[in-house]
Write a structure and sequence with these properties.
two-stranded antiparallel ribbon
C-alpha cells in the first residue's frame, strides 16, 4: 500500500500513533499529522540552535523537562524561551520539511513508511495538527516546484559544485540575490550535498534543495550527468524554460517565500 493511501486510511480511521520506516516517521493524533521526523532534514532543535534562536542548553532543558510528558514544545513557551507564534512557525516548517522527505525519499529504492505503531506519541508534543489532505497537497506542490525549477533530480543527492567564474550571474542574467540562495552558494564546496548544506546552515532541507535546483538552472552550480557513469561533471546544458504569462506572479510568490524563510 502506498504512503498516500495508508495515510488516507489512517486519517479516515482517526488513528493515533506513528507511521514509520527507514526514511522517517509521521506521528498522528485523531487522524491528523502532529509531527514528522526524517534523518534527511534538520529537526526543530537543530534549526533553533544552529540559527542562534535558542542556546543548546535551553533546548536540552526543554527535552529533559518536557519530553517525558510529551510537551517539550509547550515547555519552551511556558518558560519564555519562544513565543507561541515562533513555536508554531518553526514546528510547521520542520513538519512539512520532514514529511516531504518521508513521502518522497531521495533514494527511490527506499520505501515510504508502511508500519503503524498504535498510540505512539512524539516527545515534542502536539503544536498545530495538520490534516492529511493538506499535507498530501503540500507534498505534491513541492514536487512540482522542484520539477519546474530544474527537471534534473540528480542534483538533489550529488555534491554541490559551483561553476568556476560564474560569479553571481546566471545564464539568463543576475540571479535574484536572496539571502538563502547566497548562503547555499557560499556553502557549496564541491563536497557537501544539498542536505548536508541544509544541516550546516540549520535551514529547511527542501528550501535548500529548491535553491540548488534554481542555481543549477541558472548555470551557477553543475549538474552531474545522470546516465553516463564516469563522465566528468560539467555545467548543465539545458536552458531554463521560457517565461510565461504567469512568470511575474510566480516571481512574486518566490519573493514572498524567501522573505518568510529569512524570518
Amino acid at each position: 500500500m502506498s504512503g498516500d493511501s495508508t495515510l488516507a486510511r489512517l486519517a479516515a480511521e482517526r488513528a493515533t500513533g506513528a507511521l514509520h520506516g527507514c526514511v522517517g516517521a509521521l506521528y498522528l493524533a485523531d487522524g491528523a499529522v502532529v509531527h514528522a521526523e526524517s534523518p534527511a532534514v534538520p529537526d526543530v532543535g537543530w534549526r533553533l540552535t544552529a540559527g542562534g534562536r535558542l542556546s543548546p542548553e535551553s533546548w536540552d532543558e526543554a527535552v529533559e523537562e518536557g519530553g517525558p510528558d510529551y510537551r517539550a514544545g509547550s515547555f519552551l513557551v511556558e518558560h519564555g524561551r519562544l513565543s507561541r507564534g515562533e513555536l508554531e512557525l518553526c514546528h510547521l516548517s520542520a513538519l512539512f520539511d520532514a514529511a516531504y522527505f518521508v513521502l518522497s525519499p531521495l533514494d527511490t529504492t527506499q520505501r515510504v513508511p508502511d508500519r503503524f505503531l498504535k498510540e505512539a506519541k512524539h516527545w515534542f508534543g502536539p503544536v498545530r495538527p495538520v490534516s492529511v489532505p493538506l499535507l498530501q497537497r503540500e507534498v505534491r506542490r513541492r514536487r512540482c516546484l522542484l520539477e519546474r525549477a530544474w527537471p534534473r533530480p540528480e542534483v538533489d543527492a550529488a555534491p554541490v559544485v559551483p561553476v568556476a567564474g560564474a560569479g553571481g550571474a546566471g545564464r539568463g542574467g543576475p540571479l535574484p540575490p536572496t539571502c538563502g540562495r547566497q548562503a547555499v552558494l557560499a556553502a557549496a564546496d564541491g563536497v557537501r550535498t544539498p542536505l548536508q548544506i541544509a544541516r550546516a546552515l540549520g535551514r529547511s532541507a527542501f528550501a535548500t534543495l529548491l535553491d540548488v535546483r534554481r542555481l543549477a538552472a541558472a548555470g551557477l552550480v553543475r549538474t552531474p550527468e545522470a546516465d553516463l557513469p564516469g563522465t566528468a561533471v560539467r555545467p548543465a546544458r539545458l536552458s531554463p524554460p521560457a517565461p510565461t504569462a504567469a512568470a511575474p506572479e510566480i516571481s512574486l510568490l518566490y519573493r514572498i517565500r524567501d522573505a518568510l524563510e529569512a524570518l
